[in-house]
Amino acid sequence: MTSRFVIGTFGDESHLLAATTAVRREDYPIVDVYTPYPVHGIEKAMGLRPSRLTWVCFLAGFIGCMLTLFFQYWTSYLDWPINVGGKPFDSLPAFIPIAFEVTVLFAGLGVVAALFVRCGLWPGKKARPPTPRVTDDQFALVVRLDRADHSAAHLRALLERHDLVEFDERIGEESP
Amino acid sequence: MEGNPVHPVAAAGSVADVVDPPPAAAPVPSKAASLTPPVVLPSGWQRGLTVAIASGALLTILGFVFARERACAGMLLASHYAIGIGLGGLMFLVLGYVTQAGWHTAFRRVPEAMAGTLPVGAALTGVALLGFTWLYEWSHADAVAGDALLQEKSFWLNTGFFLARAAIVLALWLVFARLMRRTSVEQDSTGDVRAVGRLSALSAVFLVIFAITFSVASFDWLMSLEPHWYSTVYAVYNFAGLFVSALAAMLILLIVLRRMGPLKGILRDDHLHDVARLTFGFATFWGYIWFCQYMLIWYGNIPEETAYYVTRSNGAWKVLMLVNPIVNWLIPFLVLLPRPAKRSESILIKVATLLLLGRWLDLYLMINPSIAPGGPALGIWDLAPLLVALPLVVLWCYRVLGRRNLLPVGDPSLGESLHHHT
User: Fold this and answer.
1) Which of A104, A155, B102, B351 is surrounded by the fewest CB atoms within 10 Å?
2) C-alpha to C-alpha distance for B246 and B254, rounded to whole angstroms
3) CA distance, residue A147 to nearest chain B CA (Å)
């Protein structure tokens, strides 16, 4: 299904923030916001849900921790017990540093992998910024226009109240 | 912005927009004192705390008569707990100054007031250390005479040098706390930006002095309770516990001050979030150091090092030793992990209370096994000194808070802090 998309471009983060808040108040569906750097408070203005990546991070870390503890028990207690310095075979304190390291490794790699998968950032992926200047000095707000009671003219008037720099309309299968 | 009504000062932009260095002769509003409601402890509280101090003092004296060793150990614990709140407040300030952080400026007077309780902690420590005969084995000539190791150590562990070191350490802490407080308060009326640089330089010097003096204090006052044993990470371990307890106390104080009015509209959820993050981080740091000390001694398995943990594995000490990392690390870690928890007043109050109890348990495990190796005997004689120390710290803290503006109006980073966003 093809949709109409509107791209509003701004020259300043405060205008972008105000415009995003206003567009959301009018109930236009916001597709995404493109900025040259992370803008504080934009996730609130866009009404994004809290990220679920934290759960991925926690679970990946937890799995890493458990696997490593099990692996160490398996190698030094179950499968091939070795007497190291007269310590008991199931020496939990000695297992903890490695369990800690692998927890951090799994949590770190797991959350980055989850982020890449969720964002579709596979190798060779082409960047498709709505305008190249969002990598330099401009801020773009992309809105989907598919409801009958939403008009481009009304949206444009709304954005112009916040120092709109450029206004562009596109029609396509997916967002620009 | 929800939950954070903008403070009139911030909204009006009078103080908040001071970004450029103000001219030397003070554009700082003279109405500064009326910017926030005064900080007053409700009179009921004041009376209650005073009664607690009086009865605690009475019980401590009785304890000194009937159970001398336990009273002395209790006094050492209470004094170290109290001085930890002051030192922790001071370290929070010092870390902020040395990094020239601006996010905490809006509530900086709170850690300043905590550092202002250092004289109380120092006085209590002084009283506690006067009980050295009943605390430290190395202070007895006959014990040293029959002990080769204590003879070796006697150039360091002897009464005169011990008390002199304590006096120097306490004096250095008090002097630096005083200097920093004065510079900060003076800036209220002068608005002098150069104070930022002065505080930063002062703090850098203090960091070095603190590392040395605090190690000396930890080794002398606590570690030498078991003079045959040593652990090089002991001071770091003690500092980790101290800083967590101070952050926990600060969280409670901040939340109480916001609920009661003085910090309403000034302290944002974002500020709490950042203090909670520090608490979370340092609780984990404490756990890390706790494990470091334990694991290396367990792994090395050398009798002179393991003695410490052998005592702490006797009877009920073992239970307390296992509960310690659960209270001080595991529960705070799991509870504070999600983001909303670090912004919730009710969760933070509970975790902070748990951590304050945890600090007591930690100190109890550091101190008391040396006088009761067989197992813990907990009673009124052990707790009475805390009944003196903690209310005294609270009263003193409120006194310091009430004396000056609650907002450091001369600080150029105040505006940034009032709009702090995490």
Assistant:
1) A104
2) 12
3) 30
